[in-house]
Each structure stands twice: as structure tokens, then as C-alpha cells.
Amino acid sequence: MNVRFLVILAFAGLGLAKPAFAMDRWSALSMIESGNNDHAVGAVGEVSRFQIRPELWPGGDPLNPEEALTAAQKTMNPRLSRFERNHKRQPTDFEFYVLWNAPWQADHPSGVVRERARRFANLVQS
Questions:
Q1: Domain boundaries, the chain
Q2: CA dihedral 80, 81, 85, 87 (to 10 degrees)
Q3: What is the pLDDT of residue 22?
Q4: Hey, is 47 helix, strand or coil?
């Protein structure tokens, strides 16, 4: 058996192994929302890989990943600012997703939002 494999197994057994796949928040958000599908259109008309509701879409090409990221960040910035002002700290990965998906539930997410937020946080955490 390969020595490196044994070392990895030993670290994994101690809980010290890092997940094989961690993402930044925006990559994880795109993965959770659309599977990185730039052509995805949601049930109520959400567009782009980030599934932004049509009334929140600031303009530009939702099929362009860079423009979609800019639009997602513009959508999220006021939510993050409000959270930081109210809580005197930055949101956790879990809270970041709740702010994205259901900002009115920031302090008390529903079960469905909570489960999606857990999946999102797992993608982001290393």
C-alpha cells in the first residue's frame, strides 16, 4: 500500500483531513443555484447561474458568467451591509446563503432554506 495513502487515511481517521473539494462563496452559490448553468431559468423567471429574480436583475447579459457575478454581488452587497450593521459582524457561510435565498429569514430560516444553507456551507468550508 502507498505510504502517502496511509498517511491520508491516518489524518482522515483523526478528523484532520480537509475535504477534497472546497469553493469560494460565489462558486458555491452558482453550484447550488444552477449547477453553474448560465442558461438556467427558474420557476419564477430567475436568470443566470446565480438564479436572480427578474425584478432584481440589474441589466446586462445573464448568460455571461462575469456579468452574472457582478449582478449577484450588486444584489448581495446591501444585504451583507445590513446584516453587518445589525449583527456587528460578517455573516457565516450559512448566513450568507440565507441572505441570498431568503433575506427576510436571516435570523430564523425555514427548514428548506436551512437545509440548502447547510449544503452551501459544506461546499465553502475547507
A1: 20-124
A2: 10
A3: 62
A4: strand
* pLDDT at residue 86, rounded to an integer: 97
Three-state secondary-structure class, residue 112? helix
Task: Give, in order, the Cα–Cα distances in Å from 98 to each of 8, 20, 62.
Answer: 34, 25, 22
Whole-angstrom distance, CA of residue 18 vs CA of residue 6:
15
The percent helix, strand, coil of the chain (3-state, each to 5) is: 55, 0, 40
Q: Note the pLDDT tens digit of each residue in 18-70.
A: 444 567 999 999 999 999 999 999 999 999 999 999 999 998 999 999 999 99
Range list of β-strands (E), the chain = none
Compute CA distances 79 → 18, 24, 75, 87, whole Å. 30, 18, 8, 12
Q: Are 22 and 125 in contact (CB under 8 A)?
A: yes
What average pLDDT is seen over the chain? 87
More confident residue, 63 or 126: 63
Nearest-5° angle of CA 56, CA 109, CA 125?
85
- Name 106's Cβ contacts closer than 8 Å, sequence gap at least 6: 83, 95, 98, 99
Q: What is the CATH number of domain 20-124?
A: 1.10.530.10
